From TrEMBL:
It comes from Sesamum indicum. This is BURP domain-containing protein BNM2A-like. Residues 71-287 form the BURP domain. SMART domains: BURP (SM01045). Keywords: Signal.
């Protein structure tokens, strides 16, 4: 009963989360998925990345793709401080569909099966859709860094299983996601920090959307300490966002090629690195009730 309740709760949250994504033009390239041999009509975003990034307000910014302006330093997280942030928007009607486990497990999820998968989804070799799928499979198959546990969840059930494995099978799970309180077509602007509230999280699982014909979430847990914040932001044009931010306190095991280091002009282990989550990504943490038990 507890598992079914948790599954229903997670499904409801995800459906609300995906449906609530702003319908304005996201500025990203949509990958139109035609009807597959299985009869599904799928869509994905070719340029969605595992790492959602942002930039420090510094001289590095003019060298950075605007979509990467999501990273910042912990010391930037101060009331009244103003920082630039890029928040991608997605159209809910073209969001990839969540598949039940039985259906997802019946479809291979392996780069070795890419030729078959392209035929299955009717994508030409070398097309934007094919390139996006190949990149997703490659990233999902990449070995995790030291101290990291990861899973590319192809179904709601597999996502829940992974989260409960990390947080505890009896733990009540709270799902945190970014909310846009006002409609907007502005993707990148300066935001003033109006409020900060830290959410106690001895463990957390972060899940990021991946470009694929059906919904795939890259979920991962790092043993090193991370801090989770709810941040109230007000944009230059009046946009209001209740954003989720995660600060990684130890980056010493990260690759020197990690995009955050390039954006912020720093290196592994030099300082904590924080980033905002776009609206269709989320963080799973133990609920306050679970931690009091």
């Amino acid at each position: 009963m507890g598992t079914k309740l948790a599954l229903c709760s997670l499904l409801l949250h995800l459906l609300i989360l995906l449906a609530a994504c702003d319908g304005s033009d996201s500025g990203t390239k949509d990958v139109d998925i035609q009807s597959s041999p299985g009869g599904h009509n799928h869509n994905a975003h070719a340029d969605m990345r595992i790492e959602q990034v942002h930039s420090h307000s510094s001289s590095h910014m003019h060298h950075v793709d605007s979509s990467l302006i999501v990273f910042f330093f912990l010391e930037d997280l101060k009331l009244g401080n103003t920082i630039p942030v890029y928040f991608p928007r997605r159209e809910s009607e073209v969001s990839p569909h969540l598949l039940p486990r039985e259906e997802a497990d019946a479809i291979p999820f392996s780069s070795q099966e890419l030729h078959y998968l392209l035929h299955f989804f009717s994508f030409p070799q070398g097309s934007p859709q094919a390139i996006a799928m190949e990149d997703t499979l490659r990233q999902c198959e990449t070995k995790p860094i030291k101290g990291e546990t990861k899973l590319c969840a192809t179904s709601l059930e597999s996502m829940l299983d992974f989260t409960r494995m990390i947080l505890g099978s009896e733990t009540q799970i709270e799902i945190l996601s970014t909310s846009h309180l006002t409609p907007s077509n502005t993707l990148l602007q300066k935001y003033t920090i109006m409020g900060i509230k830290e959410t106690p999280a001895p463990k957390m699982v972060a899940c990021h959307t991946m470009p694929y014909p059906y919904a795939v979430f890259y979920c991962h847990y790092q043993e090193s300490k991370s801090r989770v914040f709810r941040v109230s932001l007000t944009g230059e044009n009046g946009d209001k966002v209740e954003a989720i931010a995660v600060c990684h306190m130890d980056t010493s095991q990260w690759s020197r090629n990690h995009v955050s280091f390039q954006v912020l002009g720093t290196e592994p282990g030099a300082s904590p690195i924080c980033h905002f989550f776009p609206a269709d990504n989320f963080v799973c943490v133990p609920s306050a009730a679970s931690m009091q038990e």
